[in-house]
Recover the amino acids of this structure.
């Protein structure tokens, strides 16, 4: 790993100022960035740790939903979101392993937007809002393909705000070596309809499954999904599973999620 | 070089660091506490697990400079004050929870974190908690037995 200078600002304003330098990069839990730097796939001159900024930490229920600070770790979400949004808490509690959950953060996960990450499915299916130092971004506008997001250079995620559905569940088929989702499906039923998002499957990252949403909005039972299949064309194919296998798993995971919701 | 001071196994310690110095390098090279092992260096095997402010973390995936003033507990801090093996360590010996011993420091630290959170875990809970700790020797069964025994629960004899 190349050397760098570590900064530890204590306010969002200081962090944003430090990140204005083009060679600076944000550091949250480091569970993705540090392995990437070891491989020399990232070479920041300065790392700006966000972990000492109190304003970015914690879980709070607000009138517009459950607000989760960007540097809240997966372990804290698993505990603190349980009373408000159990399906989201369960998702956080299944990320990686306990040591990863004690460091990894929601902000880091969605800034990275790994095509197999769990949170993007929850955010799309919940119609959550991504709050940054500069603006608010709707879930449907935020994810822009594998490892790509609507974030501008130097922009930091400060929180994610989740509307609370009437019913929801996330079911993933863990890739046994990495524990990321080989395929994961998140279903959320709101007063005005059902939203479904799938992660791990597509070359374009997490996506909404519109046909499944229509079917489940008409009737929220697993039988409503009978015969529904996704085309394998755009699916990820690797040594862990072919495109056809992933397309098949999408329906299986969604059915399990509907049964669990 | 920047000096970082932490409390490791109850003792206040300092060592020089670069920005890129990992906690595991600080421990092994800076302090010569070589009980914490590096198995993969890619955040996957758990051989390097230590506790930071009471939480299990992979010491190969955190920078020393993030930890100024932190409380760190390593395998060297797990023995009793008279030098005899701690409860979990003794159970690993009694139940043959190790063969080559390379994964053991991380296994013991993860087990200690589990038992602090959940003093009487079920077998399934032990297995799930150890998801991030890989062992190439034992096949895990005796590790799980050792942890159940360390929690004071009855374990079927061989
Ligand atoms: C063994 C292992 C298993 C894992 N399993 C899973 C899994 O099952 N499911 C899953 O979803 N993930 C999994 N992960 C990934 C894990 O959830 C990471 O914690 C997460 O993807 C990145 O979060 P972080 O806080 O560690 O971010 P970092 O690694 O610190 O940062 C990641 C990227 O985001 C940027 N960034 C961080 N915070 C912000 C912010 N607030 N605003 C803007 N940019 C920011 C950084 O600059 C960097 O580019 C796993 C990781 C490991 C090592
Ligand atoms: S050496 Fe840290 S996880 Fe393997
Ligand atoms: S005892 Fe050899 S790796 Fe676990």
């Amino acid at each position: 790993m190349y050397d760098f200078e570590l900064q530890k600002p204590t306010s969002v304003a200081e962090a944003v100022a430090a990140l204005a330098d083009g060679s600076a990069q944000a550091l949250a839990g480091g569970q993705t960035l540090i392995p990437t730097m070891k491989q020399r796939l990232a070479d920041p001159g300065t790392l700006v740790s966000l972990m000492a900024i109190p304003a970015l930490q914690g879980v709070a229920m607000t009138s517009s939903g459950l607000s989760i600070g960007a540097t809240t770790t997966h372990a804290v979400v698993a505990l603190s979101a349980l009373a408000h949004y159990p399906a989201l808490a369960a998702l956080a509690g299944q990320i990686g392993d306990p040591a990863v959950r004690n460091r990894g953060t929601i902000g880091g996960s969605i800034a990275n937007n790994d095509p197999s990450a769990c949170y993007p499915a929850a955010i799309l299916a919940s119609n959550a809002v991504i709050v940054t130092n500069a603006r608010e971004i709707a879930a449907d506008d935020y994810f822009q393909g594998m490892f790509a997001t609507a974030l501008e250079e130097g922009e930091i995620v400060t929180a994610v705000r989740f509307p609370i559905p009437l019913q929801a569940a996330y079911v993933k088929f863990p890739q046994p070596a990495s524990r990321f989702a080989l395929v994961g499906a998140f279903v959320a039923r709101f007063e005005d309809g059902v939203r479904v998002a799938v992660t791990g499957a597509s070359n374009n990252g997490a996506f909404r499954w519109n046909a499944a949403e229509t079917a489940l909005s008409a009737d929220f039972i697993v039988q409503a999904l009978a015969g529904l299949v996704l085309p394998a064309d755009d699916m990820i194919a690797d040594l862990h599973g072919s495109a056809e296998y992933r397309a098949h798993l999408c329906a299986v995971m969604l059915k399990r999620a509907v049964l669990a919701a | 070089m920047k000096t970082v001071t932490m409390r490791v196994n109850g003792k206040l310690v300092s060592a020089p660091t670069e920005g890129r110095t990992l906690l595991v390098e600080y421990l092994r090279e800076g302090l010569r506490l070589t009980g914490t092992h590096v198995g993969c260096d890619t955040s996957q095997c758990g051989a390097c697990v230590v506790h930071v402010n009471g939480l299990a973390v992979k010491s190969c995936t955190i920078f020393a400079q993030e930890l100024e003033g932190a409380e760190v507990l390593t395998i060297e801090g797990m023995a009793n004050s008279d030098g005899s093996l701690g409860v979990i360590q003794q159970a690993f010996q009694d139940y043959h929870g190790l063969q080559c011993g390379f994964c053991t420091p991380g296994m013991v630290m993860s087990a200690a974190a589990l038992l602090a959170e959940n003093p009487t875990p079920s077998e399934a809970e032990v297995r799930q908690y150890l998801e991030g700790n890989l062992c190439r020797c034992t096949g895990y069964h005796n590790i799980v037995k050792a942890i159940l025994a360390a929690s004071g629960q009855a374990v079927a004899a061989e």
In short: The longest helix of chain A spans residues 243-260.
